[in-house]
Amino acid sequence: MAETKANRPRRRGRADAKAAPFERKTNYRNLKNPFPPMKVFSDDQIENMHETALRTLEELGMRVLLPEAIAIFKAGGARVVGDMVYIGREMVAAALASAPKSIVGRGGASERDVTLELGSLVFQPGAGAPNATDLVRGRRPGSARDFIEYTKIAHHYDVFQMMSPSVEPQDVPTHLRHYFTMQTQLELTDKFPFVFARGTPQTMDGFRMLQDYRGVDDETFLSDPYCYTIINTNSPRTLDIPMAQGLIDFARHGQLSIVTPFTLMGAMAPITVAGAITLSHSEALAGITLTQLVRSGAPVCYGTFTSNVDMKSGAPAFGTPSHFQASLAAGQLARFTGLPWRSAAGSASNTNDVQAANENQMGLWGCLMAGATVIIHSAGWLEGGLSVSYEKVITDAEVLNMIAELCAGAEAGPDEIGFEKAISEVQPSGHFFATTQTMERYNTAFYEPHVHDYANFGTWTERGSEDANTRATKVWQGILAADSRPAVDETRLGTLQDFIAKRTEEGGAPPES
Amino acid sequence: MAETKANRPRRRGRADAKAAPFERKTNYRNLKNPFPPMKVFSDDQIENMHETALRTLEELGMRVLLPEAIAIFKAGGARVVGDMVYIGREMVAAALASAPKSIVGRGGASERDVTLELGSLVFQPGAGAPNATDLVRGRRPGSARDFIEYTKIAHHYDVFQMMSPSVEPQDVPTHLRHYFTMQTQLELTDKFPFVFARGTPQTMDGFRMLQDYRGVDDETFLSDPYCYTIINTNSPRTLDIPMAQGLIDFARHGQLSIVTPFTLMGAMAPITVAGAITLSHSEALAGITLTQLVRSGAPVCYGTFTSNVDMKSGAPAFGTPSHFQASLAAGQLARFTGLPWRSAAGSASNTNDVQAANENQMGLWGCLMAGATVIIHSAGWLEGGLSVSYEKVITDAEVLNMIAELCAGAEAGPDEIGFEKAISEVQPSGHFFATTQTMERYNTAFYEPHVHDYANFGTWTERGSEDANTRATKVWQGILAADSRPAVDETRLGTLQDFIAKRTEEGGAPPES
C-alpha cells in the first residue's frame, strides 16, 4: 500500500515529515478491553443457567468415549454407568476453584507472552478451515503453501497475539502433518503457538519439538503454557476420544486447553440463547473439571462458540443477533466463574463481500461487549469456517487494528483540549492545519490504515477503481514478499529438522480418533 | 429475495410452517439503546471541556452573519462587536435549563411518532449527498427520480424512524425544489419529515404544506415538532445566514433543530479528539442558546459529527478510531447537558465494498456506545457523503435491523433455559431439531435477513456466485416495485398540489445564503 499513499497529492504546504517531533508508535500486543461489559440476562437468570448446567451434569450426564477419562472422572467422585459420567456439583466447584484465573502463555520472546485473564483482549485469525481462498488463485483445498503463507500473514500483524490452526494443509500426510505445522509455526513466528489434540503421540511430538526449539526444560514447561489447543465437545453432551485425550495430555503437561463447545442453536443445541448457552456451559464445565482432576491448577480457558442455524435451510449463520446475545450470555457465565474465556466472530458468507464484513464485525462486537479474553476467527473466516480468505484477513485486520487503537484511550489534558495551542489561534471560518497543536501532532494523531483508501472519487477512479478486496491482495502479497520472520537459531533448527527426520523414518504419528 | 429463500432445500422433514404457533413479529419503531454507554474521558475532563467551551464563547466568541440573530443574542445579554457575538455562560446555562429533555417528533400516524431523549435510539439513512449510485445505473448527479426512490426505500424499513434529505434532486430548479421534496415525503411516507433551512420563504412554504397535508392547526404545530432540520455551523465559530435563520424560524414555530457542527479534526477543528469536541460543543451550545432565546422550551437536539482527516492527503476519513472516540466524548457532553443528541456513522469509501461496510459499522458502534439518540448517515453513505448508494442502504439496513433485534433483549425463564423441553429430551450426540422447545419456536426464533445469504458454497456457486451487493440490487428493486406508500387523502393531496401550483406561478422561493 505504500505506493498508494505516496502517490497522494499533498494538499497543503505543511511542514515536512521531518519537522514532526514524534513518530507514531502503536502497541497492539497487550490489550485491555476498553468496552463496558454488557448483560443480556439478569444475574438471577445467569445463576439459574449455571444451576441448570450443574443439574444437567448431575442428572443427565456426559457421554465420555475415552476409558482413561472415565476412570479419572470416577476417581474424582463421578458416578459412572457405562460411558455415561455423572458429575457432581462439588466436583465442578472444586475445579472452578483450582483453575487459574490468570494465565501467561509464553511466546518465543518475552514481548510475545500473552496474558489471558478477564479483561485482557487477544485476537486470533480464522482457524480450522479445510479450504483457502484468494483473488489470485481462487478457492482450493488447504495446502502446506497456504499454511505457510497464512502463518506469515498472521505473524505480520501484532494484533494477532496467538497463532491459530489457520488452514488444514491437506497435501501433507496426516501422520506427518503435525511436524509440518509445528515447524512452520516455530520458524515463521515467535507468537504463542497452537497444537492440535489428535492423540497422545502427536501431542508428545509437538511438546518435544517446542521444548527443544525454544529451549524449555520439563519443569519450566510444566509451570507455564508454551502452547495451547482447542477442545470442542461433541454437543450435546459428548466428549470424544481425541478431545478427552487432549484435555488429559495438555493438563498433565501444564499446557493450555481452551474448552469450547461449538453449538448451533436449533441443531446441536436448544433453539434459545438461554438454552444453548446453558448446554454449552455444562459441557465446558465438564471439560474444565477433567483438566483439574488430572492436575489441579492446570491452565484452562472457558470457551463458547454459539450461533444459530437458518431454520429454513438448516445452514449455519454467524454475526446474527442470536450469536451476539449468546456471546453476551457466555461472558456473564465466564465472569460468574472468574475464568479467562474465548468466544468467536466469523461469517457465513461465501466470498469476502459486504455480508462477510458486516457479519464478522457484528460477531466481533458481540465478543467485545461480552468481555471475551480471546476472540478467535476474528479475521479471514468465510463459509462458516469452511474457508479462510487471504483478503479477508487483511480487511478484518484493519478493523482489529482500529479496535486496538481504542484500547489505548485518548488524552484530554489542557494541551489536548488546546484552548491556547489550537482554538484561540484560529479565526472564525479559518483552519487548524498550522496551529501549534497540529504542528506538534500531525504525524502521530491518527491511525493509518493499511487497506482503507481515503482518495476522492476522481483520484480513485483514475487509479483503476480498485475495491478494498483488490487492494487487500496487494497487501498480503507485500507481506509475503517482506517475509519478516523472527531470527532463527540454526542449531535449534537443525535439532528440529533431525527430530522430524527421525520421527518420519519411524512412521510418524497418525491422528487418533 | 423471496425466490432465493424459497429455492433453498429444506434439509429436514420438520413440521410445516402452519404447525408453528407464532408468526415472527418485530417492532423496530421505538427502540431503546441496550448498550452500556462508554466513556473515553473522565468526568473531570468532560467538565474541563465544557468549561473551555464556555470560555471559548465568552472570550473568543462566535461570528454570526445574520443581523436578526445578532440582535436576538444581544437582547439576550450577549456582548456584540460587529458580527462577533460573545455569549456568557449564564445565557448558556439558561438555555440548557429551558431546552426540553424529551421531544416527540410527530409522524403522519401516531405509530410513526418518534421520541427523542437520552436512551432512545433512532436511525436515519445517509443524507445530503449530491450524487446517487447503484449497480444498474452507475453514479450520477442526484435527481428527482433518485429522491423519490430513496424515499420509498427509507419508508420501507421501519428501522429508519426519521426521514433524511437523502440526495439532492439537482434536476429540480432550486426555487421549486423544496416543494418537490416536501410533496415527495408527504406522499410516500408517514415518517417524521425533514425540511431544509434554506431561508425563511422556503421554510414557511414547507411548514404550510406540512400543516395542510397533515391537518395540523397553528397551535398544535407550535406544541410539538412535525418536522426537523439539521443546522450545521461553519466551523470554526461561524453561524451563517441560512443556518441562523433556520434556528430562528424553527424555534419560533416549535419545530425541531438538530444543531450539528460538522468538524474534521486537523482541518476545521483541532487535531485532537478533546480539542475538536470542545470546539464542536461550544458551537452547538451557541446554536442551542439562540433557539432558547427565540422561544424558551423550543425543541432542539445537541449534535456532533466529528471525524478526522487523513493527514497525508487532507481527505476526510470516517469510521476511524478518532471518529469513534469523538462520538464517545460527544455522548459524555450530551449526558452532561441532558439533551437528546445526534451523532453520525458514515464511510469514505468510493464504492459499497468491504471498506464501506467496515467503516460504517465502526462509526455505528461508536454512536451506539456513545448513547446517541439519533444516528444519521447510518446507511447508504459513501465518499464521505458525496454519494448515497442504493445497495449500501440495503446492506447497512441489515446491520441496523440486527441491532434493533438486540434492543428487544432475550428471555431466560425456565422455558427458555429448557431443561425439560429441550436439554433432557436429547440424547448425547443427538439433535434438537424436534424438541418441544424447537417445535414451539422454530418459526420465530431467529432474525431473518433480507440480503445476507446462508447458502453453502456449492449452492451459492450454482446460483451464480452473487455477492451481497448484487443481491442488494434485487432487494431495492423489489421495494420500489412493491411501492408500499401510506394511504393518500385525495382532498389533501389536491390542496397540496394547488398550493404548489400557486406558489410555482408566484415564482417559488429561491434558497437564501
TrEMBL record, chains A, B:
Residue ranges annotated as transmembrane are none
What are the alphabetically sorted keywords of the record?
A: Methyltransferase, Transferase
Q: Which GO terms describe its biological process?
A: methanogenesis; methylation
Q: Which family does it belong to?
A: Belongs to the trimethylamine methyltransferase family.
Source organism superkingdom:
Bacteria
The EC number of this protein is 2.1.1.-
Pfam families, alphabetized: MTTB
The protein's matches in InterPro entries, at most eight in alphabetical order, are given as:
MttB-like_sf, MTTB_MeTrfase
Supply the enzyme class, top level.
transferase
Region Disordered, annotated ranges? 1-22
Query: What is the protein name given in its UniProt record?
Result: Methyltransferase
Organism of origin is: Lentibacter algarum
Mention one GO molecular function: methyltransferase activity
